[in-house]
Every structure is written in C-alpha cells, then in structure tokens.
Amino acid sequence: MTVLPTNAQLRVAVIGYGGWGKVHLEAYRSNPLTQLAALCGRDPERVAKTATCYSAHPYTNIGQMLEAERPDLVSVILPDAKHFEPTLQVLEAGIPCFAEKPLTMDLGEAERLLAVAKQRGVRFGINFNHRYSTPFQRAKAYVDGGKLGRPAYFLWKFTGGHFPEGQPSLQHLLYMQSHGFDMLRWLGGPVREVSALGADPRGEGLLTTATVLLSFASGAVGTLIASVDGSYADPHNHEFECLGLGGRIRVTGVLRRFEWSPRASREGTTIWEPGFFDDRARDFAATTATHIDRFVRAQLAGEPVPVPAEDGLEALKLGLAAIESAQTGRRVLVESSS
C-alpha cells in the first residue's frame, strides 16, 4: 500500500444527497483521509438539515460552493440524466471529480467532459464499484494471472431495476447496464462489435428487455442479458460467467458467490462466499466506500485514477451501440479509445 504523507487529508464536497448520495456522504465521513466540507442540493431546508448531520456547510448553488470552499475533491451523485452540467462546472473549476455512473446519457456530453478534464489537468474518475466486490476482485486476479487461459465467452445477466415513467426504450442500457458493459470490458478486454434485440413484454411500446451479443478483440464472444422487468428481490437477478481454455469463473449476485472450476478436474473447484460475520463483504454500499478510499489515496499519492472517467465513455459507447442495433436490426462496430 502507498505510504501517504503524515496527516494527509482531502476536503471534500458532495453534490446530491439522495439514497446513493448518502452512501458517498457516509464513506467520506468514515474515512480518516477526508474531511466532508460541503454539501450542495436544491431544497434549502433539506440540504441544511442533511449538511448539519455531517458537520458540513450547506449550499444550493454549485458555483457558489466551489468558489467559497475550493474543495480538493467533489462527488457528483444526481439522477442519471442530470450528470452533465454539474460535472462540467466542477471540472471547469479545475477541481478533481468523482462521478457516479453513467458518465452521461449522451456521447457528445461525455466527450466534452473528458476534454475539459484533460485541458484542466484534473483527476476525473467514475464509480464502477462492482469492480470492488470480493467475487469480481477474485475473478480479475484469475483472468490477469492467466488461470482462465484464452477466453471463449463472457456472460452478464442483470434482470432487476427501475424504469422511470416516460423514459425512452432501452435507456437502462445506458445507466443500469453501464456496470455490465464495464465489467465485460474490464475482464474481457475491448469490444469490437455489438448486435442487440429488444423486447416489449409489457405491451406498452417500450423495449424494456434486451439481449446483446458482443464480439471481443480477443476473439471471444459475449452476451449481456438486460431487463428492468425483473425485481431486485429476485435472488437470481444477477449472474456472471466466463469460460476459457483454463476453466470457468462464475459470480452470483455481485457479492454473493465466486466459483472457479479449472479445466483440469484434479485441481478441484474453488468457492468463495462471505462468512457469517463478514457483513462488509455482503454490503454493496461498502464497494463504493472502498472505491472512494482508493481514489482518495491515489490523489494524495499523485498516482493514476483507479477507474478513470474514460471507462465511463467506453461503457456509454457500448450501450448506445446496443440501442442502435436493437432499433435498426444491424450489427454496430464500436470504436474503442483504449
């Protein structure tokens, strides 16, 4: 672990204080390397009340907060379609930003954010916190360590979630399934081609379920099954699997179970599940706290951002390509920046 300067600490501001915003607030409050300085929101009474709970200064104007506080880091946690303008304000002010996924819902906006961050020389990360669950940490170690061998296929299934009223077809491929596209890239490498089919099981003229086929640069193939017609309460709403010439990896429920089955049967199967008292390993919010800690440590040590915002752009490209394919019936080539 990086040795940090004595008494190193970042002053942090948070924009947004909804359900997931409070996950960020708690992560910063409990981290000895951060001081929660300010909180910004729309409702004066609510933001003042919440800020008081965290001993932070309340604001209803982002520009005023940035000018008055000059924080070392800002977290942006707002509704999916509202990420662009606040994030742009933070980056244009030259302040490091830790953004929630999706980066944006629009390719041009995402590219502008990255251009501003580069121009200002600002650290800019995105919270793909699935990467910090124990099962996926183990999966990554097995892939990078060569145990999986040459990959044959990757499978991601997530069939729970939410679909706000009035939302266009397949928009969940941009916000909810950004995790899936990111994990498939993180473990399988760049994706070169996408083909998708959408379904309207509700009969409302909206595509709320989709199957996405992917072709990886490695030669492997993949499938992403995405639906908001299931429930978070379903114990089988998430599954991940990848098969290589060295064996098979399976992850259940993001946090619930990791399984490694080597091709050489004499080695035996390896299984990890959180122990009875291992509450943190079962806590999805803890993955964000871990990611925030890594981001903060990297900033204090002058090291690269753990999950750069560029990865958010790549996930967005895949989601947009899948939507285009489902709407046109054509395969879509994906131009990767990596």
Description:
The chain is globular and about 60 Å long. 42% of the residues are buried. It contains 9 helices and 15 strands. The strands form 2 sheets. Strands 14-13-12-11-7-10-9-8-15 form a 9-stranded mixed beta sheet. The protein has a 6-stranded parallel beta sheet with strand order 3-2-1-4-5-6, sandwiched between helices. The chain has 2 domains: 117 residues, Rossmann fold (3-Layer(aba) Sandwich), CATH 3.40.50.720; 173 residues, Dihydrodipicolinate Reductase, domain 2 (2-Layer Sandwich). Helices cover 33% and strands 24% of the residues. The longest helix has 20 residues. Helix 1 crosses helix 8, helix 5 runs antiparallel to helix 9 and helix 7 packs across helix 9. The protein has 338 residues and is α/β, with parallel strands linked by helices.
Which characteristics define this entry?
Dihydrodipicolinate Reductase, domain 2, globular, alpha/beta, Rossmann fold, 2 domains
Quick overview of this protein structure:
This protein has nine helices and 15 strands. It is of the alpha/beta class and 338 residues long.
List the helices and strands and how they pair.
Layout: E1 10-15, H1 19-30, E2 34-40, H2 44-53, E3 57-59, H3 62-69, E4 73-76, H4 84-92, E5 97-99, H5 107-120, E6 124-126, H6 134-144, E7 151-158, H7 178-188, E8 191-199, E9 209-216, E10 221-227, E11 238-244, E12 247-252, E13 257-262, E14 270-272, H8 284-301, H9 309-328, E15 332-333
Parallel strand pairs: 1-2, 1-4, 2-3, 4-5, 5-6, 7-10
Antiparallel strand pairs: 7-11, 8-9, 8-15, 9-10, 11-12, 12-13, 13-14
